[in-house]
């Protein structure tokens, strides 16, 4: 991969190059056989060996990232009821969102097996930090629909009634280090690459 | 004890400050510029630290400030997959000389033109279930405030890093009484004199995204007027581009050349 220096600054509507020279990347659009910029930022041209170079426009802060279908998000449980848990999405991947988005984890999306025996209050409690995946942007009535029906998804940080951060002891239980009381949760098996991101 | 919010709690006796103000010697009419010549402009982008993006435009005595916030959460009525743009255009109470009259009807119409002009330029499909908000405030109105607000709002959106097809540039034009020539970028006295036209253009794509006319317009003159407005837009475009490049360089450090 080669990056050509120096970076040029461009504004929306600026014609960058012909569609025959470069493939359009992030922050660009095509019209009449040319690639135009759709952001104000720096022009970056990357070419993987032998392939057509991809031209894109970058800004350092990815401030306009929105949760999309299939994205892994980190959220906080705000309230629970017997049918679903309401959460607030705070991170998309490793990027913090400027404005939080509301999401819903329905009862049947909490885990993959024995869906009929799931109970929301045995899986989440308000205040838990949960890693989930977006399955739908929702319709007119509902907001983002999330799922935790994977081993890697579920509660990552939870506090006991004594206020201590609990330690996961199995995929469905967490224990308080102070009082040694066990509480049921849908625990996530956090992947090592995620641990690097969160610490 | 909190007072009655519905009651005006001013002093019992009051006078207009204009009685005491020294009458300012404002240049009236077109001093030293031709019919097709716009006023000198000052443009700056990215001046408000608390907004996602902002811009300020000054053309003659007309001053417009614009701020953008978002994208933020929006419910999305009726299964709408695109984002939504929210525009709010206001005139400050002190923006015009003389007593303030809140002309709600014309303000609403101006807001609609602003919304229409900007929506065509934005890639709202990239912001599903989200909302972008634009606030434009006319600090002082000495004519052609609406086209200045259009240019300013578009610049603020670009400064916020919203994806768009092109900047939107606005231009205004007025025609006096019957048979008079067209005057680009009218000041307030010229604006009140007769028919006016406001046009928004996407200069790089050469597309008109908004048009608002008032007064009587006929075939030939209106074609000439549209052409003159488009020329005015093209003249302002490089100024906006320059200030945006300056703001981008100030806001965002250049990416480090990397290899590997």
TrEMBL record, chain A:
Instruction: Name all S1 motif domain ranges.
Output: 68-149
Name of the molecule in the record: Exosome complex component CSL4
Q: Which UniProt keywords apply?
A: Cytoplasm, Exosome, Nucleus, Phosphoprotein, RNA-binding, rRNA processing
Asked if the record carries the keyword Metal-binding, the reply is no
- InterPro entries, per this entry? Csl4 (IPR039771), EXOSC1_C (IPR019495), Exosome_cplx_N_dom (IPR025721), NA-bd_OB-fold (IPR012340), S1_domain (IPR003029)
Q: Check the record and name the SMART domains matching this protein.
A: S1
What CDD domains does the database record attribute to this sequence? S1_CSL4 (cd05791)
Q: What does the record list as GO biological process? A: rRNA processing
Question: According to its UniProt record, where is this protein located?
Answer: Cytoplasm; Nucleus, Nucleolus
Q: State the oligomer form and interacting partners.
A: Component of the RNA exosome core complex (Exo-9), composed of EXOSC1, EXOSC2, EXOSC3, EXOSC4, EXOSC5, EXOSC6, EXOSC7, EXOSC8 and EXOSC9; within the complex interacts with EXOSC6. The catalytically inactive RNA exosome core complex (Exo-9) associates with the catalytic subunit EXOSC10/RRP6. Exo-9 may associate with DIS3 to form the nucleolar exosome complex, or DIS3L to form the cytoplasmic exosome complex. Exo-9 is formed by a hexameric base ring consisting of the heterodimers EXOSC4-EXOSC9, EXOSC5-EXOSC8 and EXOSC6-EXOSC7, and a cap ring consisting of EXOSC1, EXOSC2 and EXOSC3.
Where's it mainly located?
cytoplasm
Q: Which organism is it from?
A: Engystomops pustulosus (Tungara frog)
Could you name the domain of life of the organism this protein comes from? Answer: Eukaryota
GO molecular function terms here?
Answer: RNA binding
CC per GO annotation: cytoplasm; nuclear exosome (RNase complex); nucleolus
**Family statement:** Belongs to the CSL4 family.
Automatic annotation (TrEMBL), chain B:
Q: Which Pfam families does UniProt cross-reference here?
A: RNase_PH
GO annotations of cellular component type: cytoplasmic exosome (RNase complex); nuclear exosome (RNase complex); nucleolus
- Give a GO molecular function annotation for the protein: RNA binding
Q: What keywords tag this UniProt record?
A: Cytoplasm, Exosome, Nucleus, RNA-binding, rRNA processing
- InterPro entries the UniProt entry points to: ExoRNase_PH_dom1 (IPR001247), ExoRNase_PH_dom2_sf (IPR036345), PNPase/RNase_PH_dom_sf (IPR027408), Ribosomal_Su5_D2-typ_SF (IPR020568), RNase_PH (IPR050080)
What the entry lists under SUPFAM superfamilies is as follows: Ribonuclease PH domain 2-like, Ribosomal protein S5 domain 2-like
Instruction: Give the signal peptide as a residue range, or say none if absent.
Output: none
Where, subcellularly, is it found?
A: Cytoplasm; Nucleus
Lipid metabolism listed as a keyword: no
Q: Which residues form the Exoribonuclease phosphorolytic domain?
A: 38-163
Q: What's this protein's family per the entry? A: Belongs to the RNase PH family.
What is the designated name of this protein? Exoribonuclease phosphorolytic domain-containing protein
Q: Which species does this protein come from?
A: Engystomops pustulosus (Tungara frog)
């Amino acid at each position: 991969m080669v990056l050509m220096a120096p970076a040029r600054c461009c504004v929306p509507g600026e014609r960058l190059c012909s569609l025959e020279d470069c493939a359009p990347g992030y922050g660009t659009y095509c019209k009449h056989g040319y690639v135009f910029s759709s952001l104000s930022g720096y022009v970056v041209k990357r070419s993987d060996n032998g392939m057509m170079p991809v031209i894109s426009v970058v800004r350092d802060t990815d401030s306009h990232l929105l949760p999309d279908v299939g994205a892994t998000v980190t959220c906080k449980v705000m309230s629970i009821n017997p049918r679903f848990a309401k959460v607030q999405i705070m991170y998309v991947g490793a990027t913090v969102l400027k404005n939080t988005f509301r999401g819903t984890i329905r009862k049947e999306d909490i885990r993959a097996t024995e869906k009929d025996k799931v109970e929301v209050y045995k899986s989440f409690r308000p205040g838990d930090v949960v890693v989930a995946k977006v399955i739908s942007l929702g319709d007119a009535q509902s907001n983002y629909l999330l799922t935790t029906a994977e081993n890697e998804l579920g509660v990552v940080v939870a506090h006991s009634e004594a206020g201590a951060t609990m330690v996961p002891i199995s995929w469905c239980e967490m224990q308080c280090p102070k009082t040694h009381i066990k509480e049921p949760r849908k625990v996530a098996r956090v992947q090592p690459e995620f641990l690097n991101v969160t610490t | 004890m909190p007072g009655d919010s519905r009651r005006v709690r001013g002093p019992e006796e009051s006078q207009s400050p204009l009685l005491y103000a020294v009458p300012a010697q404002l240049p009236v009419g077109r001093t030293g510029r031709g019919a097709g010549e716009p006023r000198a402009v000052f443009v700056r982008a990215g001046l408000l630290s608390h907004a996602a993006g902002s811009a300020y435009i000054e053309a003659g005595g007309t001053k417009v400030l614009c701020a953008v916030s978002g994208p933020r959460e929006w419910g999305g009525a009726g299964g709408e997959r695109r984002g939504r743009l929210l525009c709010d255009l206001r005139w400050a109470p002190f923006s015009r000389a003389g007593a303030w009259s809140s002309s709600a009807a014309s303000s609403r119409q101006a807001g609609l033109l602003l919304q229409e002009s900007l929506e065509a330029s934005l890639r709202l499909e990239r912001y599903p279930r989200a909302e972008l908000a634009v606030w434009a405030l006319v600090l002082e109105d000495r004519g052609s405030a609406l086209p200045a607000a259009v240019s300013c709002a578009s610049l603020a959106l670009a400064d916020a890093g919203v994806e768009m097809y092109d900047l939107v540039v606005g231009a205004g034009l007025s025609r006096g009484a019957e048979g008079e020539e067209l005057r680009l970028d009218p000041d307030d006295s010229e604006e009140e004199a007769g028919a006016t036209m406001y046009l928004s253009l996407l200069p790089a794509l050469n597309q008109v995204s908004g048009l608002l006319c008032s007064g009587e317009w006929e075939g030939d003159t209106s074609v000439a007027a549209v052409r003159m407005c488009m020329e005015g837009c093209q003249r302002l475009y490089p100024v906006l581009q320059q200030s945006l490049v300056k703001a981008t360089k100030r806001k965002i450090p250049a990416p480090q050349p990397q290899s590997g």
